[in-house]
Design a protein that fits this description.
Blueprint: E1 9-13, H1 16-19, H2 32-38, H3 58-68, E2 72-76, H4 79-82, H5 93-108, E3 112-118, H6 124-128, H7 137-152, E4 158-163, H8 165-175, H9 185-206, H10 208-211, E5 214-220, E6 223-226, H11 232-256, H12 261-274, H13 286-292, E7 299-302, E8 306-309, H14 324-342, E9 346-351, E10 355-356, H15 365-383, E11 389-395, E12 409-410, E13 414-416, E14 432-434
Parallel strand pairs: 1-2, 1-11, 2-3, 3-4, 4-5, 5-7, 6-8, 7-9, 9-11
Antiparallel strand pairs: 10-12, 13-14
Helix pairs in contact: 7-9, 8-9, 11-14, 14-15
Length: 438
């Protein structure tokens, strides 16, 4: 069916706490992932302390990007690095200069930076004050966003407010698989949505005419299929899953400023069924709805897998299975439900799968096949379905710290030797060893 349009954008990604290291250098603040890993809650008691040592390897990381001929690099900034306490009065100039160096070095190599303001690594100081469960964090995030737009916005033209915020709400404050093991994912989502909207308005009001950039959010979602397509109950269960995972965030931003009616109804049904008071979806005021609706310049999608859903069974698969056709169906769903309303393009802001390291850095054919197949399905969506997809981002540039799994799962296009204190591979001849992924 041809190739992608000539102006289609390719990108690779990383996230601050997964690769930077330097966790306490120059007065950098502690993050919730630093605390989590120091409490021995990660695979083999691994920590974020050194990670890939990207804090000291800016030039080499950009060298790797040049080798990939990547025209765009998507990375997140660490809130606790720039504002150690989470507030502006703690501004750390050396951290500001670190991100200046990344951005400037990228641009010198003709690589456009895409910057995510928050990808999971909340400053521990803010968490100690309640984190995303405390609505005061909305003002703190506005302050942080404003600083980043003001200082870096002359060079950064694409901004992501939050990367995979469902993971923060559901795993960080719901199941407790991720830090900070809070208790109220519903209020967390409420505060994240308000924070996103405020950041978008700050950019729109103060920086858009000056810098001419874009601001959006990167939502993560699986695709789901009913286990029995002939079962009305299974079809309804699949729809509820999509409303919970994707619609919970997307509907307020892309549709009408409020939560999906199906989500509200489901919570009320659960309350009646249990016969006791359950957590309720907070209510947005009419002013808040207007403030949230339409606060986006693109739909960012992080997608890795698809699932089978039934009324009685949530999932039949492990976290990531290769189901390439699922991304095409999800992109069509997003176009129908969301971007057809807001008239914005879709950016695939993260796609990839991990491999378990077995000592052979080149034994990676499964992941090569995965990426080829998903890229091909995205191309079908562009040409056959005529959906406006403008970017594909491969996760990630290099192996890194993958949350509770530590360094046991490897997403990188480049291999990192985590046994070497200098993070060099092949006895020091190269920092990283490229996987062939095209």
């Amino acid at each position: 069916i041809g190739s992608f349009p000539v102006d289609f954008e390719w990108s690779v990604s990383s996230e601050s706490f997964k690769v930077e290291g330097g966790w306490a250098e120059h007065g950098k603040g502690e993050t919730i992932w630093d605390r989590f890993s120091h409490e021995d809650r990660v695979f083999e008691n691994q920590t974020t302390d050194l990670a890939c040592d990207s804090y000291h390897k800016v030039d080499y990381d950009v060298y790797l990007l040049r080798g990939l001929m990547a025209p765009n690099y998507q990375f997140s900034v660490s809130w606790a690095c720039i504002f150690p306490t989470g507030r502006k009065e703690s501004l750390l100039e050396k951290a500001v200069a670190y991100y200046d160096k990344i951005i400037d070095t990228l641009l010198q190599s003709s690589i456009e930076p895409t910057v995510a303001l928050h990808h999971w690594d909340l400053p521990q100081a803010l968490q100690d004050a309640g984190g995303w469960e405390n609505d005061s964090i909305v003002e703190a995030f506005k302050e942080f966003s404003d600083f980043c737009f003001s200082h870096y916005g002359d060079r950064v033209k694409t901004w992501i407010t939050f990367g995979s915020p469902w993971v923060v709400s559901n795993l960080g404050y719901g199941t407790g698989e991720h830090p900070p093991s809070g208790k109220d994912p519903i209020i967390v989502t409420h505060n994240i949505l308000k924070s996103h909207a405020e950041a978008w308005h700050i950019y729109n009001d103060n920086y858009r005419k000056l810098h001419g950039g874009k601001v959006g959010i990167a939502l993560n979602s699986d695709w789901v299929e009913p286990r029995n397509p002939s079962s009305d109950q299974d079809v309804a269960a699949a729809e509820r899953y999509l409303n919970f995972m994707l619609g919970w965030f997307a509907h307020p931003i892309f549709v009408d400023g409020d939560y999906p009616a199906m989500l509200k109804e489901q919570i009320e049904k659960k309350k009646d069924l249990c016969g006791k008071e359950l957590a309720r979806l907070p209510v947005f005021t009419e002013a808040e709805k207007q403030r949230i609706q339409g606060t986006t310049d693109f739909f960012g999608l992080n997608h890795h897998t698809s699932r089978l859903i039934s009324e009685s069974l949530n999932s039949s698969s492990d976290w990531i299975q290769s189901v390439p056709w699922g991304v095409r169906r999800l992109l069509n769903y997003i176009s129908l439900e969301y971007t057809s309303i807001t008239k914005v393009p879709i950016y695939i802001t993260g796609n990839g799968m991990p491999t378990e390291y077995n000592g052979d850095v080149f034994s990676d054919t499964e992941r090569v096949d995965y990426l080829k197949a998903y890229i091909n399905e995205a191309m079908k969506t562009v040409h056959l379905d005529e959906i406006d997809i403008q970017r594909f981002t491969v996760q990630s540039l290099m192996d890194g710290f993958e949350g509770p799994q530590g360094y046991s799962q490897r997403f990188g296009l480049h291999y990192v030797n985590f046994e070497d204190p200098d993070r060099y591979a092949n006895n020091g001849s190269h920092s990283l060893t490229a996987h062939i992924c095209a």
